[in-house]
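Bug: token stream looks shifted between consecutive jobs. Job 1:
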Amino acid sequence: MSSIFHPPSTTIHTGSLEAIGPEMASTALGMGSFASAFNPVTSTAYFIPLWLSNPVSITKVFAANGATAQGSLDVGLYDEDGGYIISSGSTTQSGANGTQEMTLSPNVIIGPGQFYLAVSLNTTQGTLLRVLWTTTTLGTLAGMKYLYDTFPLPTTAVTFTNLTNTAAALPFRALTYIPLIGFTTNVTGP
């Protein structure tokens, strides 16, 4: 929860202090570890936790595309209970090896508190920059979640359950695939 001790960044992404950057660094993964990789499972939504110490106004969401831009993606934001806040909607992936930005309309103000960045791709042929943990346990400990058969991102609340090893809970266990996604902000408040 390192964001409690500093104001939010103007760009918040998977590897930032507000998200799971500290957890990634503790396992020797850093921003230099991101590389292009195919989406491992079609229509899987990846949820990456983040913490904000102050309110922010979100103006754009983005995904870091890898070497192949194909199919469609959806980038969004959920609250800590899985409540839908906003997303880009289904957007054709474009621009290999670059950041694809999607302007939100209207802008949305969130924070402080815990939230989830989310992304889903409708194909395994599209690539994003990503890092890999060696075990799903690290993703689970960092608070990551995922849902199968989820494209575009749901505009209703999603259900996060306690992470266990039961078959019913397996769809909610974090994968080792950690996509580079995020949003840009205008800091509001004090």
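Job 2, same session, no restart:
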Amino acid sequence: MLHEALNLLEEGVIERAIEVLKEIVKERPDLIEGWYNLGYALAEKGDYEEAVKAYDEALAIDNFIFEIWFNKGAALYAMRDFEAARDCYEEALEINPDDAEAWNNIGNCHSRLADGEAAIEAYTRAVALKPDYAEAFYNKANAHFIEEQDERAITYAELAVKLNPELDKMVSQWINVARNRLESRREDAEYKKRQLERSSAKQPDQD
């Protein structure tokens, strides 16, 4: 039955897969593969709340499996429960700290929770683990933009587009704002420097 359910999932026959998986966990409530795949199928259907319940049943059997915490985090994120999603990704990363996607996703949680510095740190970990991870570079750039760290925002945005040109449309929504802010700061710094130089030149010599 599990083999049948997995084939149905692979073929995209989600409703029938859910029916089979529910039969499996009814007969074998101790079968972690049944609960895990039921959670996955329910999430594919968009029934995230029920998916989380299925993942919890799987975690009650074994709470040291990366994929279950990761997928539970994804379901909670889809439900906009960003704190709970972050906690799940943290659990996943305790098991496998070298998963770039989990670092990217936890960065997204921090970003949604308005913790820009934590988001940037997580995205930085993601791209360190996967140097061609265009999405994480874009997310890092966007986080720097929100924090008004425009020079870094521009640098990482350009790198993201170089890695994946399809990101250009997203980058173009804000990169000119970053460039204008950066230029304005530079002009302001130059103006203040000139004012200071003029002020110093006017100071009378003192014996």
